[in-house]
Amino acid sequence: METLLAPHGVRPELPLDALAVLTTIALAPFLFVMTTSFVRIVVVLSLVRSAIGASSLPPNAVLTGLALVLTFTIMTPTLRDLSHDALEPYARGTISQRAMLARAFVPLQRFMLRQTHRKDVDLFARMAHVPVARATDAPPAVLLPAFVVGELRSAFAIGFALYLPFVAIDLAVASILMGLGMFMLSPPIVSLPCKLLLFVMVDGWALVCGGVVSSFR
Questions:
Q1: Cβ distance 143 to 33 under 8 Å?
Q2: Percentage of the chain modeled with pLDDT above 90
Q3: Cβ neighbours of residue 200 under 8 Å, at least 6 residues apart?
Q4: Contact indicator for 173, 190 with CB cutoff of 8 Å
Q5: How many helical (H) and strand (E) elements, i.e. helices and strands, does the chain have?
Q6: Rounded to whole angstroms, how far apart are CA atoms 95 and 101?
Q7: Which residue pairs from 98-104 have beta carbons closer than 8 angstroms and sit at least 24 positions apart in sequence?
Q8: How far apart are the two ends of the chain, measured CA to CA in Å?
Q9: Separation between Cα atoms, residue 107 and residue 92, nearest integer Å
Q10: pTM of the predicted model as reported, rounded to 2 decimal places
Q11: Most buried of the four, 12, 25, 107, 203, by CB within 10 Å?
Q12: Please, which pLDDT band fits residue 20 given cuts at 50, 70 and 90?
């Protein structure tokens, strides 16, 4: 009876381990978005759709799926290191759960540091009142927001460059219609087919995907 109530060899931290696993699973989508290339890619694709002028085409599901595929393509080396250094040893039982989580963060940290500017790290270090001598010493609470802000900055910079040719088409069409005296005809009705034709002729989606992938270090 005593053995049933208090079995020997049962670690008291098992409930905490289970709680940590459940918490990690619940936060997995958030961590995937915040620690990978997904943010930059999905913002750039959304800006391209907005620049073309087709607000609902391609649908959000298509853009998100394409962003996920490109994210896995970019993150393949990082995920391979994560699996080799953390998941495989944990599956074999050679390391603890805490060690697995610590090792799993290292490849993601290397990836984020390559994309993060030092000024962003210093900004969030001051906000968190955490002294950071080197960027590699930044804790996750500082590195994660610095990485996301840098990704948003890069995405908007790429989106600005992509917007320019479409704005030029809009201005040209509007000027031509005004010169012809066709004030009752809405310029977007004419400019949208022109922008679609230009985008198809230059193989725009392939160029955008290739450009955004090559923007990662």
A1: no
A2: 3
A3: none
A4: yes
A5: 10, 0
A6: 10
A7: 101/20, 101/24
A8: 61
A9: 20
A10: 0.78
A11: 107
A12: low
Report the distance separating Cα 190 and Cα 167, nearest Å: 13
Q: Name the residue among 208, 199, 184, 211 with its Cα closest to residue 53.
A: 199
CA distance 84 to 163: 41
Q: What is the reported pLDDT for 18?
A: 63
Q: With beta carbons less than 8 A apart as the criterion, state whether 145 and 122 touch.
A: no
The Cβ of residue 12 has, within 10 Å, a number of other Cβ atoms equal to 6
SS3 184: coil
Query: Has residue 126 got a pLDDT over 80?
Result: yes
CA–CA gap between residue 102 and residue 56 (Å, rounded): 41
pLDDT digits (tens, 9 = 90+) for 82-120: 888 777 787 777 877 777 777 888 888 888 888 888 888
**pLDDT surpasses 80 at 54:** no
Length reported for the chain = 217
Cβ distance 131 to 125 under 8 Å? yes
HSE-CB for 37 with a 13 A CA cutoff: 28
What lies within 8 Å, CB to CB, of 78 at 6+ separation is: 107, 108, 110, 111
Name residues whose C-beta falls within 8 Å of residue 130's C-beta, 6 or more positions apart in sequence: 138, 139, 141, 142
Amino acid 16: pLDDT: 58
